[in-house]
Amino acid sequence: MPSPLARDAFLKAVRDAGVVGEGGAGFPAHAKYAGTADTVIANACECEPLLHTDRHHMEHSAEQAMLALKQVAAACGARRVVFAMKRKHADLVPAIEASCRAHGTELALLDDFYPAGDEQVLVREVTGRSVPALGIPLAAGCLVANVGTLVSAYGAMRNVPVTHKTLTVTGEVRQPGILRAPVGTPMAECLAAAGGAATPDPVFILGGPMMGRLVDGPEALAAEHVAKTDGGLVVLPRGHALHRNAAQRVEHMRRRAACACIQCRFCSDLCPRALLGQPFETHRVMKAFGMGMELAGEAGRMAMLCSGCGVCEHYACPMGLSPRRINLAVRKAMSGSKTPYGGPTAPDEARTANRDVRKVPLGRLAMRLDVHRYMDLATPFLGTLEPSRVRIPLNRHIGAPAVPCIAPGQRVEEGACIGDIPEGALGARVHASLAGTVIAVDDGVTIRRQP
Ligand code: SF4
Ligand code: SF4
To answer: pTM surpassing 0.70?
Structure first.
């Protein structure tokens, strides 16, 4: 067990090891842990249906996560330290409870609803506080650390950089399971390690079914490589409802919004951000978008408050419309035109009154998504992959891309720094995930394993 580190030494170790938020966002952890908070929460509440990556960490690395959590709490001056998980993992609760007791950490057990693992929702569940619109948990005095990120931070405390990623491979595969893969492993090798697709014409989702990114077939998958932020690969048959939804073009969504949105408000009433009290009414974005007025007034600007969780689109809307994708398209257009949000940010407690009865049960959500048949698949650990070649991205974190510090032809050892943080910028270091020869450097570094 490593000794506790002084604050600056811990932050430096996390920076040097290239730790980023592994829950999806990829925020550099050394910058996040340098904040000030009264409460620190370990987030093991994986809320995407079908993914079991957080559960794997709890089963195999809970002690490491707990030790890193205490370091994070010391770094940001928190007095309250909480480990949050779902009570449905009843078989793991006694061990986690004992570990919490030994480390003076509280245990928070959450129900199985979506999106329990959203940082802002988790802050509300644990502390009763709402994060202001466009804010981060630090604005409510809280720091939320994903359990996988904490395991990586524990590695950093022992001078072990982030070189591997744990992910769930599931859906239409012959052997669903959990894999540990060097960062940069071709996604196609992850699929092969899970026995390959069990459907003749597969499509893929990188991440979970609610917030993941569609990859439209094996050819497109060939260009994808494991990043530190990837938590899952879901395989579906072509033509599945999630595939049809993700393949819609923006103008098609606009026509459908214009002629089929009945302004019923279900999308707004069930929106997890609105239920935290944030001034967000998705049905108004839909109306403005349908009229082509989304960049002209207050309604369209609300799209900036969308987290992209997908409750509106995959669960709430009775007309099968795409408020999530429309919000994200409007948000992108506003960012492109540098249009500021300019609206109120303070949460309104009156809007939170129905939050408890409007939480979305995960089982019902899986039925609605038509992925319920994959919900209870056994996902054993399938081992650590050893690809012959990796392509390690330099830009899959928040902030500036890493600057390569190696050149083609150079030999590197596993764990060597191959991309550094630009001077004075927010960013994350990148390390070689296997020992070999660098064969290409562009917005990623390709390394061929040394025979
Ligand atoms: S739930 Fe669907 S139909 Fe109802 S207001 Fe929202 S987008 Fe329109
Ligand atoms: S995706 Fe829909 S439900 Fe989720 S935050 Fe955005 S508007 Fe609200």
So the answer is: yes
